Amino acid sequence: MTSYLFIILGAVLVNNVVFVRILGLCPFMGVSKKLETAIGMGAATTFVLTMACGASFIIDRWLLMPNQLEYLRTLSFIVTIAAIVQLTELVIQKTSPLLHQVLGIYLPLITTNCAVLGIPLLNVSLRHNFLESLLFGFGSAVGFTLALILFAGIRERLEAADVPIHFRGTAIAMITAGLMSLAFMGFAGLDKYK
Amino acid sequence: MTALQRLFKFNGGVKPAYNKEASTGLPIAVAPTPTLLVIPLHQSIGGMPRPLVTAGERVLKGQRIGGADGNVSSAVHASTSGTVVAVEMRLMPHASGLSALCVMIEPDGRDEWIPRQPFDFRSATPTQTRDYLRDAGVVGLGGAVFPTYLKLNPGKQGKLDTLVLNGAECEPFITCDDVLMRERAATILKGVVIMREILSAGQVLIGIEDNKPEAVAAMEIAARAANQAAGDSAIGVVSVPTRYPAGGAKQLIRVLTGIEVPHGKRSTDYGVQCFNVGTAYAVYEAIALGQPLISRIVTVAGNVTQARNYEVLFGTPMRDLVALCGPLADSDRVIMGGPMMGLLMPDDSVPVVKATNCVLVGSKKLFPPPPPEMPCIRCGECAKACPADLQPFEMYWFSRAKIFGKAQEYNLFDCIECGCCAYVCPSHIPLVDYYRFAKSEIWAREIEKEAADVARERYEFRLLREEREKQEKAAKLAAKTAAGREKAAAAIAEAAKPAATPEEDAKKALIAAALERAKAQKELVHPGNVSDLTPEQQAEVAAIEARRAEIREMAKPHLRQDD
Amino acid sequence: MFEAILVMALGAVVLGAALGYAAVRFRVEGDPLVEKIDAILPQTQCGQCGFPGCKPYAQAIAKGEAEINQCPPGGDEGIHKLADLLGREFKSLSAEHGIEKPKSVAVIDEQSCIGCTLCIQACPVDAIVGAAKQMHTIVAPLCTGCELCLPPCPVDCISMQPIGESVETWKWKYPVFKINPAKREAA
User: Fold this and answer.
1) Best residue in C1, C3, C25 for a mutation probing chain A (most A CBs within 10 Å)
2) Residue C137 lies in a domain
3) B327 and B378 in a common domain
4) In terms of CB atoms within 10 Å, which end of chain A has fewer, N or C?
5) pLDDT computed for residue B184 by the predictor
6) Distance between CA atoms of A91 and B247, rounded to whole angstroms?
7) pLDDT average, residue stretch A122-141
8) Is C65 domain-assigned?
9) ω before B245 within 30° of 0 (cis)?
């Protein structure tokens, strides 16, 4: 039981997908301008990533491995993820058209979010079982959402701040992200209590 | 009879130097009538009163010159008798430095009143009483100039638990309420008794800051007399701790009753209503004496040799008033109100209005220019000082960046602009200026949005109308062409049948017989209005009939043959 | 090799079926976004954006057929609001659609009006009253300042007058510290 907890905690904080693994930076910089969109994007990614981890485990373990088709892993994972993203997009368009419009191009781009492909591949290399895969995917997605929300909160305030002209926009955002990354390194200390 | 009242506290507040002694030394003097009164029509919150006089007209003292317009508005009166010289745009006592419609009256020196009679509010309906007070121009004299008749409404319950009289007068330099209470306590109490009756209020609490012991003593004596006359002990005078802004309505209500009026609610929802003592005085004058509001007590203080309180007619230029007190040579500005909330006047020629509780003369020495604004260091001093329990630094942060939605989320509109936050700010940020800027921007946007909504509605209605008209036109056209076609078809059919069959002849004869019958019947029926007519009328009718026949004759060639 | 093709084909069929079902199940009717965009537009109905009114422009923006910087009456502020709503980048007002002018109302010079009703037909918000061969006048509070009545007038009797500030509409200015130039001493 504790090992599952550690998988989640580790994925959220210690090995935060954005700040430590430096994956999924594209949506992280792209949709963190407003808190609302950040929450929407986080929720969508959480759904996609958890589903992708489950589906890719099934495909990998029961379809690819028995047929010695491991070389098709990346290809089939991408196809699966693309389908799940399409599904999510349809659902969001139905339930929240505004969020759909605001997420814009970033929603289909979840497909190419390296975190969404990276985590299932990590699952394989870490030899997680089905439940662990799901939890690892979910934890990573929560970590991604957490990073996105924290960053959006900071950026909303940054908008009102007196930033030197040349640092305005993406520049100050990158600096902020770097500082947050440094801060998340502090969680590495949690390891000692394992 | 200082009730051993349990007092409450409001959060925040500051203790600035009060500087009140200078103007309380001398009794109230009546300011001389100036050579020209400039009376702005818009002196209260709400709709702009419409002018009721024109240039050249003679007016009496107390004559209504501006009629209340709309639901929230209050009348304006001539301050003395004289001749209306002009009704034109003049500089207003307003921070904008813009002009508005004013009535210029040249006094004739006779000071002749309109006929005055007391208003019997006991036998009048509440609506009549409120209309009377609206037309008497009574507004809140604490500075907000909200029409009093709107506040003299006990609310849904029909009665009020507590009527709060505000004599706190917390702002530095201002002593107009103080001297009014000292000298005319009995009259104020008479006004209070009237207000209590109108509002069916249970108890009355008169809150006075404890730095005015003379006023407290005078009001206590008057209150005791009023209580004895009424045979109860409903009116209490309460001395409240001196702390700015104890005179804010919500703050005083909090101190006296412990009730904290939350965001979006009114004090009447909690059975409390708050009035200034000067307003009570004005209510007495209006109801018991029949005198509309035409003057008030104004403190002249600041950079003058002898600060004093004057009873001033509305429309008196501030310059004249300041001249009475001997302004010092280095005076460079005139402020309406106190140093905390007062507004810098564009010029010293602007008139005294209902909102003018103080004319503060300033100089560089007395009010040195503020040190340059430094960045906010988020020390939180402003939040500690805020009497409205807001977070001024957050409101500032977003107002400054013009992110108004966020500023509103921090309840910008609950800010009473008391200036405590700016007073304590170690970075000398003019916080209130930012709030005023943000508030007026938000208001302007709301007005714009309303206008846009109206425009959208009208545009959509126009489209709808155009569509409808198009359809109607099309329908008409279709009907016309259909009729034309039918006729053409009938004509062709007629042409195709040159000879009528005997059957048709019989039919035609039948139709002709029917027509004959109808004609005969028609002749039998006379129009009802042609019987019992005088010969002249009959002749007239005959003439008209003849003309009609003539026209019919003339029109015959133009009519179609088959008609 | 054959297995690989089979596996991928199987995956494609299953996923395609799932998506096809979802597309039917979650079909979206209408576009609520248009309302939100329309609420931001100033409703002058002036057509400077190249569309016959604010609503058609809103529809075009929602479909991605129009840029957000084509509305001169809305100005930079309107573009900022649209950019915020749609998550697009701010663009300054496009010059080909006009420039931001101070808000004004049309005024008819009643001396020279000949009562042709052409302006009445042009007004998108019915803010002009009058009848054929009678003098026309503009109901100022309803006028949006769209200038659409100017071109049809055969005698050019309509002019645009900027709305002045009054005590009621005056706004507190943004607090700035005035840096006064040192006054030159009078010789």
Assistant:
1) C3
2) yes
3) no
4) N
5) 94
6) 57
7) 92
8) yes
9) yes
Vertex B263 angle, CA B258 and B264, to 5°: 120
pLDDT tens column, B224-278: 999 999 888 889 999 999 999 999 999 999 999 999 999 888 888 888 999 999 9
**pLDDT tens series, chain C, 187 aa:** 787 888 888 888 988 898 888 888 777 665 677 888 888 898 888 888 888 888 889 989 888 888 888 888 888 888 988 888 887 788 888 888 888 888 888 999 888 888 888 999 889 888 999 888 888 899 988 898 888 889 998 988 999 988 888 888 888 888 876 555 565 654 4
Identify whether residues C55 and C76 lie together within a single domain. Answer: yes
Question: Same domain for C130 and C93?
Answer: no
User: Per-residue pLDDT tens for B152-172?
Assistant: 887 777 788 899 999 999 999
A159 CB neighbours in chain B (<8 A) are 401, 403
User: Does the distance separating the beta carbons of A101 and C33 come in below 8 Å?
Assistant: yes
Please write the tens of the pLDDT for every residue from B475-492.
999 998 888 888 888 877
State the pLDDT at residue A193.
Answer: 53
Residues C67 and C113 in one domain: no
Helix (H) or strand (E) holding B166: strand B160-167
Closest Cα of chain A to C6: distance in Å?
Answer: 11
- Residue C167's CB: how many other CB atoms inside 10 A? 17
Separation CA B510–CA B147 (nearest Å): 83
Q: Is residue B561, in this structure, part of any structural domain at all?
A: no
pLDDT one-digit tens code per residue, C20-36:
888 887 776 656 778 88
Q: What residues of C are in contact with residue B402 (Cβ under 8 Å)?
A: 174
Give the residue from chain B lying closest to A160, CA to CA: B401
Q: Find, among B398, B18, B320, B36, the residue nearest to B174 by Cα.
A: B18
pLDDT, mean of residues B441-469: 91
The ipTM value here is 0.80
Q: B428 vs chain C: nearest CA distance in angstroms?
A: 12
Q: Note whether A64 contacts C62, CB cutoff 8 Å.
A: no
Strand, helix or coil for residue A158: helix
Q: How far apart are CA B184 and CA B277, in angstroms?
A: 10
Mark yes or no for CB contact C170/B440 under 8 Å. Answer: yes
In a domain, C135, yes or no: yes
List, as ranges, residues 154-173 from A with C-beta within 8 Å of B.
Answer: 157, 159-162
CA-based nearest residue in chain A for residue B397: A160
Do residues B192 and B238 share a domain?
yes
B233 and B5 in contact (C-beta within 8 Å)?
Answer: no
B375 interface with A at CB cutoff 8 Å? yes
Contact indicator for B28, B309 with CB cutoff of 8 Å: yes
First to last CA, chain C: 101
Return the biggest CA–CA distance within chain C.
103
What is the domain count for chain B?
Answer: 2
Residue A192 has pLDDT above 70, yes or no: no
Confidence tier at B92 by pLDDT (50, 70, 90): very high
Distance from CA of C170 to the nearest CA of B (A): 7
Q: Single out the residue in B474, B489, B504 at which a domain terminates.
A: B489
Task: Examine residue B553 and state whether it is found in any structural domain, yes or no.
Answer: no
Contacts with A102 from chain C: Cβ below 8 Å: 85-87
pLDDT band (50, 70, 90) for residue B414: very high
Instruction: Clarify whether residues B259 and B402 are in a common domain.
Output: no
Domain of residue C74: give its range: 32-97
- Chains touching C, CB cut-off 8 Å, 3+ pairs: A, B
Model's pTM, two decimal places?
0.80
pLDDT in tens, A67-92: 888 888 888 898 889 888 888 888 88
Residue numbers of A between 101 and 160 with CB closer than 8 Å to B: 157, 159-160
Contact C8 A75 (CB under 8 A): yes
Q: Answer whether C45's CB lies under 8 Å from C54's CB.
A: yes
Cβ separation B455–C45 shorter than 8 A: yes
Q: CA A122, CA A131: separation in Å to the nearest integer?
A: 14
Contacting partners of chain B (3+ CB pairs under 8 A): A, C
